[in-house]
Structures
1.
Amino acid sequence: MSHVLGLDVSTTATKAVLLDAEGTVHAASSPGYTFETPQPLWSEQDPQLWWDGTITAIRGALAASGVEGDDVEAVGLAGQMHGLVALDRHDDVLRPAILWNDQRTEAECDVIRETIGRDRLIAVTGNDALAGFTAPKLMWVRRHEPDVWSRIAHILLPKDLVRLRLTGDHAVDRADGAGTLLFDLAARDWSAEVVDALGIDSAWLPTTYEGPAITGSISAEAASATGLRAGTPVVAGGGDQAAAAVGVGAVGPGVVSLSLGTSGVVFTATDEPLIDPEGRLHSFCHAVPDRWHVMGVMLSAAGSLQWFRDALAPGVAFPTLVDEALGAPPGSDGVLFLPYLSGERTPYPDPHARGAFVGLAARHGRPHLTRSVLEGVAFGLKDSLELMRTVGVTGFDEIRATGGGSKSALWRQILADVLEMPVMTTSSSEGAAQGAAMLAATGAGWFADVPDACRTLVTSGERVEPSPADVYRERYAQYRSLYPALAPTFRSIS
């Protein structure tokens, strides 16, 4: 047995990655799917898509690599965080999963704050009540779908529905569990205080595990479906951001992981829980045992570029579109873009926030707009980095970028210039799936612990140094002024 398998159950695809003991990715398979927006602010997905995608991804990776299922020593899981999967006593899905980017639960967030007290909620869970988290979704189901509520026997997060189908076990890693708003952050387990106060049956909650811990093994039925060996251990893994951070080696203080996917995340590990008392940053358990992390999240990062391409340049390849942006100067000749296309989390937890182009003139063309999207996302990520400094997270000196957007050399240079820090890539080309595979390798005993796995398997790639950034300091100050000015309009429009 010479390989481990990492799975990432994301919003748009399930990815399977085969990794050997030297850190070489032998194959990756990533069948895609869609999610639904049946009403304004809603975002839902059929969980069957994840299981079908998992079967296709695993079989595709095995076939592409020539690796036999018997040669896979362990499986690790990662996936989109915060989603609500409600199951009955037969483990049948009761309704479409409500996803992380769903924004329907503003009223339920208010109820949670009133019930527990906002300060107490942040002190226990490390987070304010935000629309994307799992607990407000549960409160919404109780209020609006009492028939579903009455039949719930288990609740899971998206990747853990795949775990259930693989192993038959109800389990969750502590990084993903901390993103439900039902966790005691310091204790690294469910908070009886919060669960009881919200009237949730604790029997619904899965057992929690540290990231590299084994939670079960591949069942005979799952082995037949996927081509893996029955009895193969499955480790807890991590929420997608914690797993991606493992993949780039952001497992201790001093390194910032920046994920430039559909959403954008700035992430750094801490040796103890570090909580923003205003709840603007997220504090979660890391996938690394006895470590935590602080995280800022913007909901539309590379997703902003996806929207821009689909709406204003349909059919144009992303590399072509981004190359056009080289024709516009830094600062986009005064055009600013607010990337709040799905509401926002950090630094403004506002489901009513909206996107905007500001500063348009007749002389501007598509290159200016494209570059302003790249810069607007970079400014939004800078918001998170600046907040980290204000709450005492310091000492980081490099940013390790991952996600599809980080493949763009221009975007990496803009990030380095805006953030005024070096930005580097790593050997972790497969993001959260690769981190999940590294957690599996640790659980299989290949390494003493997760940091040891990172030291062995993560190597540095291209490093981009920041250029003089006076124009970006000026544009960032202008960008920061826009949300306060436009927030009343956003709310009235919404």
2.
Amino acid sequence: MRRVAPLLLLSLSACYTYAPVQPASVANGASVRARVSATAAERIAPLIGVSDARLLMGRFAGTDAGGFLVEVPTTTQVGPAGSLQSLAQRISIPRSDLLEIETRTLNRGRTAAVVGAAAVIAGATAVNVLRGERGSDRPPGGSSTDTRIPVVRWRF
């Protein structure tokens, strides 16, 4: 079970895939990933507080006269205590600086595989618990000499 858990968590991130689309076909509020040119990334980076802004992930917020609006999540330090607050920043990307836009879609095959694997693991765990099988607990040990491992063994 300990070996399966990291694989299961890794596969949960694979339930969604990004597929390139035409910018005109993106619906408002859709989850998008936008690749922008290097000059646009230099302009955008200080606005959202990252060092490399060539790949923006957020929600499509529509179009304006200058290009496409993408709402990008950011974090800001608030107050003297330094607590972090999650905010969203709308970034206008000129059409000439937009290299590619992708939408996030649900991958049904991967999702079905993950749900099926989780159901099998949960079912096997439930069966083992209901049967009352022993777990991985060790029985109480004897004296300290019982736990020694012989390094050299002499036989005659």
